[in-house]
Amino acid sequence: xxxxxxxxxxxxxxxxxxxxxxxxxxxxxxxxxxxxxxxxxxxxxxxxxxxxxxxxxxxxxxxxxxxxxxxxxxxxxxxxxxxxxxxxxxxxxxxxxxxxxxxxxxxxxxxxxxxxxxxxxxxxxxxxxxxxxxxxxxxxxxxxxxxxxxxxxxxxxxxxxxxxxxxxxxxxxxxxxxxxxxxxxxxxxxxxxxxxxxxxxxxxxxxxxxxxxxxxxxxxxxxxxxxxxxxxxxxxxxxxxxxxxxxxxxxxxxxxxxxxxxxxxxxxxxxxxxxxxxxxxxxxxxxxxxxxxxxxxxxxxxxxxxxxxxxxxxxxxxxxxxxxxxxxxxxxxxxxxxxxxxxxxxxxxxxxx
Length: 353
What we know:
By secondary structure, the protein is mainly β. Helices cover 14% and strands 38% of the residues. Strand 5 (115-122) and strand 6 form a beta hairpin.
């Protein structure tokens, strides 16, 4: 488990990791080309989707209240380039090219101004490349990952609309009302609109809207709205999509000349935890959208409070320092605990006490 708090921010910034909900009343579709379906029908449509080959362009926008960190990470920051890259994806707007040919051939290219980030899986090989740092990481997956043990296998698609929507739907529980809003058109395709609304006022999240392709069942767009807001605080959606099989050449990645390459091997799960690791496991309190994840003292790295990036992203509060966004809060306590959730900072402070 990572000991750097920054790695936990992407995990909780998009509430796909927190909850989804109970099925509500049917609503007739209004688009002429879409048959009438209930929310249950649309959930089943996503689950039954058998489209394994597609490609397209995904646009992501974030209005979480975080500053643009692209020019703030000086030499005094202890954050690694990969951690800074993860945080940068939570700020501003980004465009990505997505290519999928089944579960073992996937590529996502994030195209920023004068920079590119690639995540490529081709069988047992996974490449992560960042042109800004001229660095590449090559992961070799264990044999069992290629033979069907995919649950713990890294995937480049973790933040695509499809992956985010599927996590939301798979985590369905009674803490959320699921309804259908008026159909929409996304990337030129008619889509049903699932609306997930928390049944509690204790969360920062107001609702999540998922556009589902009426023909293929592929989730085309995910929008997360903060409580009381009319515009999404986070959005990831296809602007174009094709179900044609991508060229196999797209998955044969070779790092550019001069790139620093790090080789890693991902071991197959052993089924047991190292001795003494139990105290590092996240503890979860609360329910559904109001859940709070707590990491024990010692989870935050030494020197975190004096880190320049940490100082610029957080403010001093009673009991520690806090990062506050429109959708998620993170609290690092004075004794080194880390608390996070889609709740106000005050809820984290209460849980810490």
